[in-house]
Amino acid sequence: MTEQLELYDVTIIGGGPAGMYTAFYSGMRDLKTKLIEAKPELGGRMLIYPEKMIWDVGGMTPILCEKLIGQLEQQARTFDPTIVLGQQITGLSRQEDGTFILTAATGEKHHTRTIILAIGYGILTMQKLEIEGADRYEVTNLHYTVQELEVFRGKRVLISGGGNSAVDWANELEPIAEKVTIVHRRDQFGGHEKNVSIMRESSVDIRTPYAVTQLHSNGENIEQVTITHMETEETERIEVDAVIVNHGLKCDYGPLVEWGLEMKDELAVVNGKLETNIPGIFAAGDFINYDSKVRLIAGAFTDGALALNSAKLYIDPEAPKVAYVSSHNIRFKEKNKQLGLDDDNYRNV
Ligand SMILES: Cc1cc2nc3c(=O)[nH]c(=O)nc-3n(C[C@H](O)[C@H](O)[C@H](O)COP(=O)(O)OP(=O)(O)OC[C@H]3O[C@@H](n4cnc5c(N)ncnc54)[C@H](O)[C@@H]3O)c2cc1C
């Protein structure tokens, strides 16, 4: 069966920042590369906050997250890796020749010499509002993320939740919505202190300790929400145009954690070369834990390069330990020409 499958040098599982940057770096090292993502689009956790400004990626002046995802994808495609979307990898088997066959939940198979796990905290899904039938409003005015702030302009918005994102959204929507109400089952909010105090001093209507207990609709849209006091059980109805629920994220690695990977605190154990305990399988990004791990987009990039270099040496122990820097890497000569640059002096660019 392996003869029918194209053999790749590296298969990266997970299309977040770690996976995308690793795909680029793998091209720099001249490896035949495949990137597989379970969701229908690349971006990983960054897809949760597309309208946020990102300030802490080196060399990037403040950039809208959505734009950074686009740029990461463009960079990932530099050396034309095969990118597979909508396949959650679940199965692994090692062949006699040491290569691996990966199986997706959809049944598709992938043949590879090495694997880089860049799966973050697994497949993310939003914790849903636990009210029967609530899912029917997901196509109208019940939201689990804020993809576009403008959607809420001039509206009466009720936010359910008390974490960082809930508080953030309340602050961001307050100047553009007609009214923002935040409902949380505890008096204390979990968001950053500064953001909580900005919210408390703003016009946001804070209802604690309350929970959303009933939705009232015209059949299509939620028009009112009943909130219930956690102690007195007293109820109140609030008129709304939109409801945003932020009850946290559910993460699931699926059957992948049964592959025999050594895990600690639900993260992969790796050594300094980002090797897992399974020879030929490396890991990068939020999925791994080591003493100095930086759980940021920038940290994911460094992990990606380290893991990929280890994969390269696994395939070819004689290869240089790291890729040639891009400023001197022959692989970019042609690419620079495509940018209209025909010598090595780009000072005037
Ligand atoms: C609200 C919020 C705001 C943040 N703000 C910032 C910020 O301002 N700056 C910053 O640097 N960082 C920020 N972060 C952190 C940053 O998003 C993460 O550190 C980063 O996304 C980790 O990248 P990753 O590629 O390791 O994992 P992820 O981004 O989680 O990507 C993992 C991908 O793997 C896929 N996957 C999982 N399992 C499988 C499987 N079995 N098969 C196929 N695909 C699979 C998932 O679908 C996902 O797309 C923020 C995080 C959050 C939640």
From TrEMBL:
Binds 1 FAD per subunit. Residues 8-302 form the FAD/NAD(P)-binding domain. The keyword Kinase does not apply. InterPro entries: FAD/NAD-bd_sf (IPR036188), FAD/NAD-binding_dom (IPR023753), Fd--NADP_Rdtase_type_2 (IPR022890), Ferredoxin-NADP_redctase_2 (IPR050097). GO terms for molecular function: ferredoxin-NADP+ reductase activity; flavin adenine dinucleotide binding; NADP binding. FAD binds at E37, Y49, I89, L124, D286, S327. This is Ferredoxin--NADP reductase. It comes from Brevibacillus laterosporus LMG 15441. The lineage of its organism: Bacteria, Bacillati, Bacillota, Bacilli, Bacillales.
